[in-house]
Design brief:
single chain, mainly alpha, 18 helices, two-stranded antiparallel ribbon
C-alpha cells in the first residue's frame, strides 16, 4: 500500500476521500444496471444494486447516529465514524457480477479450477488492484475501509470447497495489511468462526445491508405481484410460525390490503436501526485499533424478523418459476460466454480472434499462467452490467443480432 500524497488545503478526511473515489468510479456506476431482485430494466421502480447500496449507506449512517446518541460505552475520544461506515456501505457490492447471486454462483463454478469467484473477494480486488486500472494499484484505500468491507477472512484454499464466503488466495497480503500483520489466534479457525471476526464498522455495514434487503426485497416482491395476501396466507399455512411470526405476516397482509406497503416498511427501518447497541469486547486487535474494541449487539426479535422476511422472499419470490427461469437463462449466458473466452484466452486453442477490449487482451498476453489469465477474464465478465452481458452473448451466439457498427 502506497502512502497517499498530502495536497495543500485538502478539506476532506481520509474516509471522505475513499467515499468520493468510489462514487466517481465506473464500478459504482455499473451497479445501476445490475440485478438486486429482478433483472435491471424490467421496470423502472425496482431496486438495483446501485439504489440498494445508496439505501444501505443511509441506514449505516443512521445507525452511527443512533449509537453515538445512545451509547454509554464510547469515551470522549472515541466515536463511530459515519464517513467510514458510509464508504463501506457504498462499496460493499462493487464486486457483484451481472445477474445477482445467480451470476456469483455461476462464476464460482466456472472459476473453481483457477481460484474461485466470490463477490466480497472481488470487491477487495477492485479496491486494491483494478479500480481505475492505473498500474494495478486500485484506489489505494485506507486500512480502515478494507477492514470495513472484509466480511470474510478465510482464504479459498482454507474454505474446504465452500461455495462462497472466502477471499482469493493471492489476497492474503491484503488481509495481512488489514490486520496490521497480526496472526489469527488458534481459536479463530477458517470458516464461520474466522469470518465472524469483523470490525465494528463492518458489523454496522452488515446489519445495514441485512436491514435494506430483508425489508426492500419484500417491498419489491409485493410491487411485482409475487407477494400478495393470498400467497402470503398460503405460505404461512404451510409453516410452523410462532406468535411473533404470525403477527408479522398479518402486518404485511394488512399493509398490502391498505396499499401502504412503502410507508409501513420504511417505518420498520427505524426499528432495525434502534435495535442496535454497542457492547465492549476485547480481541487480539483491540490494543491496535478501537475498531475492534466493540461488538454490535442486535435485538434478537429484530434479527428473527429479518430472517423471516428473507425466508418469505426466498420461498415466494426467488424460488418462483419465473425467477428460476431467469436464473437458468443467466447461468447459460455466463457459462457459454466464459467457455468461449476460456478457449481463446485462458487455455488458448490457437484462435487469434479479438473478443475482448485491447487493454485487457494486452494484460492477458503478459500473464504468466492460466490462473492469472482466468482472473483477468473473470474481472471483465464480472464487471459487466446485465444489459452488456445480454448484448455480448447475443453478439457471440445470435446470428440475427449485431452489426459491424455496434459499439463494443
Amino acid at each position: 500500500m502506497k502512502p497517499r500524497p498530502a495536497f495543500p488545503g485538502e478539506y476532506r478526511n481520509a474516509f471522505q476521500i475513499d467515499r468520493d473515489r468510489i462514487i466517481h468510479s465506473s464500478a459504482f456506476r455499473r451497479l445501476q444496471n445490475k440485478t438486486q431482485v429482478f433483472l435491471s430494466g424490467e421496470y423502472d421502480f425496482y431496486r438495483t444494486r446501485l439504489t440498494h447500496s445508496i439505501e444501505v449507506a443511509q441506514i449505516g449512517r443512521s445507525i452511527c447516529g443512533w449509537l453515538t446518541q445512545q451509547s454509554e460505552v464510547l469515551g470522549e475520544d472515541c466515536f463511530i465514524d459515519a464517513d467510514l461506515v458510509e464508504c463501506a456501505c457504498l462499496s460493499h457490492d462493487l464486486g457483484h457480477p451481472p445477474f445477482g447471486h445467480t451470476g456469483e454462483r455461476t462464476l464460482h463454478r466456472l472459476m473453481q479450477p483457477y481460484g474461485g469467484f466470490e463477490g466480497n473477494a472481488q470487491t477487495l480486488r477492485l479496491l486494491t488492484q483494478t479500480l481505475f486500472n492505473e498500474g494495478r494499484d486500485g484506489m489505494n484505500p485506507t486500512r480502515a475501509l478494507l477492514d470495513g468491507i472484509l466480511k470474510y477472512k478465510t482464504l479459498h484454499v482454507e474454505a474446504g470447497g465452500a461455495p462462497n464466503h472466502y477471499l482469493y488466495d493471492d489476497q492474503e497480503c491484503w488481509l495481512d495489511f488489514t490486520l496490521g500483520g497480526q496472526a489469527f489466534p488458534p481459536e479463530l479457525i477458517p470458516g464461520k468462526m474466522r469470518n465472524g471476526f469483523k470490525s465494528i464498522e463492518c458489523q454496522i455495514m452488515d446489519w445495514a445491508d441485512d436491514t435494506a434487503y430483508s425489508l426492500n426485497d419484500i417491498a419489491d416482491g409485493i410491487h411485482a405481484g409475487f407477494i400478495t395476501t393470498t400467497s402470503l396466507e398460503n405460505w404461512a399455512a404451510k409453516q410452523q410460525l410462532n406468535a411473533d411470526q404470525a403477527e408479522h405476516v398479518d402486518f404485511l397482509c394488512k399493509a398490502i390490503r391498505e396499499k401502504r406497503v412503502e410507508g409501513r416498511l420504511n417505518r420498520e427501518i427505524g426499528k432495525y436501526i434502534r435495535a442496535t447497541k454497542l457492547v465492549p469486547e476485547a480481541s487480539f486487535l483491540s490494543a491496535m485499533t478501537k475498531r475492534h474494541q466493540y461488538r454490535l449487539e442486535i435485538d434478537p426479535a429484530m434479527k428473527a424478523q429479518s430472517k423471516l422476511n428473507k425466508k418469505i422472499s426466498l420461498d415466494i419470490v426467488f424460488l418462483s418459476p419465473q425467477l428460476q427461469q431467469l436464473d437458468y437463462k443467466a447461468d447459460v449466458i455466463l457459462t457459454k460466454m466464459f467457455e468461449v473466452l476460456r478457449d481463446r484466452y485462458i487455455e488458448p486453442n490457437g484462435s487469434k480472434l479479438h473478443l475482448m477490449p485491447a487493454t485487457q487482451e494486452q494484460e492477458i498476453e503478459k500473464a504468466p499462467d492460466a490462473a492469472t489469465r482466468a482472473r483477468l477474464v473473470c474481472d471483465w465478465v464480472a464487471s459487466m452490467t446485465d444489459a452488456f452481458a445480454f448484448r455480448t452473448y447475443r453478439r457471440l451466439f445470435d446470428a440475427n443480432f449485431g452489426s459491424i457498427t455496434d459499439f463494443v
